[in-house]
Design goal:
- With 227 residues, this protein is mainly alpha-helical.
- Helices cover 57% and strands 0% of the residues.
- The N and C termini lie far apart (61 Å).
- The protein has 2 domains: 91 residues, Cytochrome c-like domain (Cytochrome Bc1 Complex, Chain D, domain 2), CATH 1.10.760.10; 82 residues, Cytochrome Bc1 Complex, Chain D, domain 2 (Orthogonal Bundle).
- The longest helix is centred in the first third of the chain and has 30 residues.
- Bound molecules: heme C (2 copies).
- One heme C binds next to α7, α8, α9 and α10.
Length: 227
């Protein structure tokens, strides 16, 4: 009896310790200064020759949130990153590190100092790029998909492509196969000016859309894997 309650106490003590470590990381993430990057950082990381074997090792940390498949969470809390273009993955990571894009949840976990330097960032991006896409991402209500398709053809297709496949060289993200919840949130973040690394031409297009239209286009995009 005594032994088991001591065991329990030790266990509790250990979980408290872990909790404090985790919340400390969280708080440091919120308060931390941006990681030093400059105009050349992205070019320099993109030019590195990636080592996918090391990328897989580095990815273990990312898998805590994005899962081992890279498919994130169906409700969109964590996006699908599997199959995203390598240059996009790198740009988004650099933007988060420099605080151009706010992502306090992820910020402390992608610090190059933690992962083994910028080479590890190049490696993990190449690993994520070649993971197979999520065939069945989370979707919306399905009520306005036709309107969503029209909006996409009129205002988005020119950059994101006819099947929303994006373009690695031009830095247009792949949108097909992404969760509805994430797409909707990002469109709102971009439209409202919270996500500051967005394309200015896209921003003018998004400003013309109502909340219902944002919902419709996000729902349409989340269903493209079913076609
Ligand atoms: C603690 C959880 C967490 C960890 C660990 C994490 N991420 Fe994330 N990541 C997120 C969240 C949350 C978002 C979406 C943020 C938003 O809504 O803007 C995200 C977004 C991203 C994006 C942007 C996706 C896009 O389409 O623009 C990339 C790329 C990414 N993560 C890569 C990684 C990589 C690579 C690692 C590991 C080195 C990693 N993440 C570790 C939580 C995490
Ligand atoms: C002029 C080209 C252009 C147009 C038009 C455009 N986009 Fe984009 N879009 C981009 C670029 C570039 C990015 C990446 C910006 C960044 O670095 O975050 C992006 C990012 C996004 C993202 C975030 C993706 C992610 O993984 O986080 C979504 C969602 C999106 N666009 C949807 C749309 C929709 C919907 C439309 C039409 C209403 C549209 N875009 C029109 C260029 C464009």
């Amino acid at each position: 009896m005594l032994r088991s309650s001591r065991g329990l106490a030790r266990l509790l003590h250990q979980s408290c310790l872990w909790l404090s470590v985790i919340s400390l990381i969280g708080v440091t993430g919120l308060l931390a200064f941006p990681i030093e990057t400059n105009a050349e950082t992205l070019q320099e990381v993109m030019a590195r020759k990636p080592d996918i074997v090391n990328g897989k090792k580095v990815y273990q940390l990312c898998a805590t949130c994005h899962l081992s498949t890279g498919w994130g969470k169906k409700d969109g809390t964590f996006p699908v990153i599997a199959s995203q273009h390598r240059n996009i993955i790198l740009k988004e990571m650099v933007d988060v590190l420099s605080r151009k894009r706010q992502n306090p949840t992820m910020f402390p976990f992608i610090d190059p100092k933690l992962l083994g330097g910028w080479q590890s960032i190049a490696d993990v991006a190449a690993y994520v790029d070649q993971l197979p896409p999520d065939p069945n991402p989370g979707t919306g209500s399905g009520e306005n998909i036709k309107r969503g398709a029209e909006i996409y053809q009129q205002k988005c297709v020119v950059c994101h492509g006819s099947s929303a496949e994006g373009d690695n060289e031009k830095f247009y993200p792949r949108l097909r196969g992404q969760h509805y919840g994430y797409l909707k949130r990002e469109l709102e973040f971009i439209q409202g000016g919270f996500r500051k690394n967005a394309d200015p031409v896209m921003l003018t297009q998004l400003k013309t859309l109502s909340a219902e239209e944002i919902d419709a286009v996000a729902d349409y995009l989340s269903r493209l894997m079913q076609q």
